[in-house]
Amino acid sequence: MTAVIFFVVLALYVIIGGFVARLVKNKDDFYVMGERGSTVLIVGTLAATYLSAVTLLGIAGQSYAEGPLVIAALGSFGAWIGTLLAVIYIGRKMKALGCKTMPDFFEKRFKNKSVSIISLIIMIIGLLGYGVIQLIGAGLVLSEVTGISFPFMIVLFTIALLVFCALGGMYGVVVTDTIMLFTMLAISCIIAPMIIGQAGFADMKALADTIPFYWSIEGAEQRPLGWSISQFLVWILFFACTPALVSRVFPAKNDFVILKAAVIGVFLAPFMQVIVFLAAGGMRVLEPGIENTDNVMVIGFLNHVPATLGGIGLAGLMASIMSTASTLFVLTGFALARDLYENVYGKKMSDEKGLLAGRYAQIIVAIIVCAIAIARPSAIYWISIYAGAIFAVGWLPTVVGGLEWKRMNSKAAVGSMLIGTTSFVVIDELARREFITLPVHIDSLMISFAAGVISLIVIGLLTKPNQYEMDYFKEMKQTSLSTKTINDILKQENGAAKLKKEYKQTMVISISFIGVAAVVWGYFLMMLG
Amino acid sequence: MNMDVFILFFNAFMTTVLSSAVVIWILRKQYLPVIRQLEAEEEEAEDSSMESDRKKEASK
Fold first, then answer.
1. Considering its fold, how many domains does chain A have in total?
2. Which of A322, A344, A365, A468 has an alpha carbon within 20 to 30 A of A282's alpha carbon?
């Protein structure tokens, strides 16, 4: 039964991905879907990319074992704030500058080969390392559940990702992400509430009587509060600069789409996560003895909801893997084809050849991903420790400095990127080998982020920006996405009326979602508070 | 009331409040002045067309 669901869902995603590929006519379609992304599509790709298998497997398992508040109350809160910063601050600013990928920003801001190459190396290591390890982890769980052999499953996933990424590019990824979001929402809106309903709020609250601290931020393991606060800060840094989220705004039609997507997407992030974590707590009532806690939600899908809904739950789990993986891998392909081959090596190509190069890069990435995932070399586990967070230490200081500081220059960027990333790996390795002991409320990422910021400021003060960097900074400060959006809309027929309509619609969505959030979270507080 | 549970749901709620507040601030700061200016121009154009209509009526 589970294997049938797996094949049907995968086939469905591939057919949709293949159909969407027909819409890709040129390079602009391939990289930013011709900047035609509507609010539904941008919300879809943002929320689907945000919700990865980490939520449905790892953190759900931790919520089951230690209590639903351990990660959700502060760690996840940091992720939600980081997502808001990624979309509304960094994403909007980069889109205003005409960036189609994040490395575009480094290229435009510094016009310096060292900066471009270092930023690309960070990007490829970060995206591949983080993406492959998620694919391996989730693939192992699905392989166990469906009985399909792990290598065969990875090959099938790779073929599906090839259809989304190589044929459809950003178009394929955004549209399939949006469709996948609906299966993920089925988990949060129907399946998880059914599990909570079966467990009952009273019995869930009573878990604290048998498992001390189950309904506390410290959790059953009684983690120090300092650890939770450090997780909050780390997740803000992690999410604020991750290309997977920032790049979701590049295909958007205009600024209003981004603003609406920010409100709805940032509402959906806690909505999708917290309800899953509460359901994991409900599973502790229904099945207290699960040893492999990563499987807790899968067991919930299979044993505690009707078979059809259980199948949709598994499809949602697959969607969470594929939507995040497709975004990570499509961006890696973009980095190879557009940022490295076209920009750094200055290969000027026609639209047709550029599109072909983009597709070849996706095929190369797919083959590499497939080989690493099946071989599972021990090095990939080591890389994955640092891959996800590398953008926080390697990119974030340079991005914010580049956007806001007049003295920012290529030397400060190179210094900050190198010191941030190397100190991150060195400090963490020393701590893991017990040469040094870090205080419980200090994460190695926080120390290396501070090192990156300090080195950026010191080098920036000791050196001067060149003429190009000063001119671009001035030009950048006069560029805003709102001005561009206003001008574009006013050029249309009945432009003034359309502008007013968009303004009102965005305002209504912003206000009404505060009401929706009050009702949803107020209800859960009444039941569990 | 379990304060830790309250913190979880308060944070989830405040995330939406924060994102909505930022968006409303952007709308009012970057879009509202332009919309007001467009409305003023529309009113001005309407007034001047009514004025010219009145003059035409009077000349008849």
1. 1
2. A322
What is the CATH classification number for the domain harbouring A77?
A: 1.20.1730.10
Does the beta carbon of B58 lie under 8 angstroms from any beta carbon of chain A?
no
Query: Is the residue at A27 inside a domain?
Result: no
- Which residues in chain A touch residue B13, judged by CB atoms under 8 angstroms apart? 517-518, 521-522
* A346 belongs to a structural domain: yes
Residues B10 and A524: beta-carbon distance below 8 Å: no
3-state SS assignment for residue A291: coil
3-state secondary structure labels for all residues of A74-120: HHHHHHHHHHHHHHHHHHHHHHHCCCCCHHHHHHHHHCCHHHHHHHH
- Cβ burial A374-385 (10 Å sphere, 16+ → b, else e): beeeeebeebbe
User: Does residue A485 carry a pLDDT above 90?
Assistant: yes
Q: Does A138 touch chain B (CB under 8 A)?
A: no
SS3 A37: strand
% of chain A at pLDDT higher than 70? 99
Q: Which residues contact A513 (CB under 8 A, 6 or more apart)?
A: A263, A264, A267, B16, B20
Whether B11 sits inside 8 A of A77 (CB atoms) is yes
pLDDT in tens, A174-232: 998 998 898 889 999 999 999 999 899 999 989 998 899 899 998 998 888 888 988 89
Tens digit of pLDDT for each residue in A269-288? 999 899 999 999 999 999 89
Q: Is residue A24 part of a domain?
A: no
Parent domain of A299: 2-19+34-528
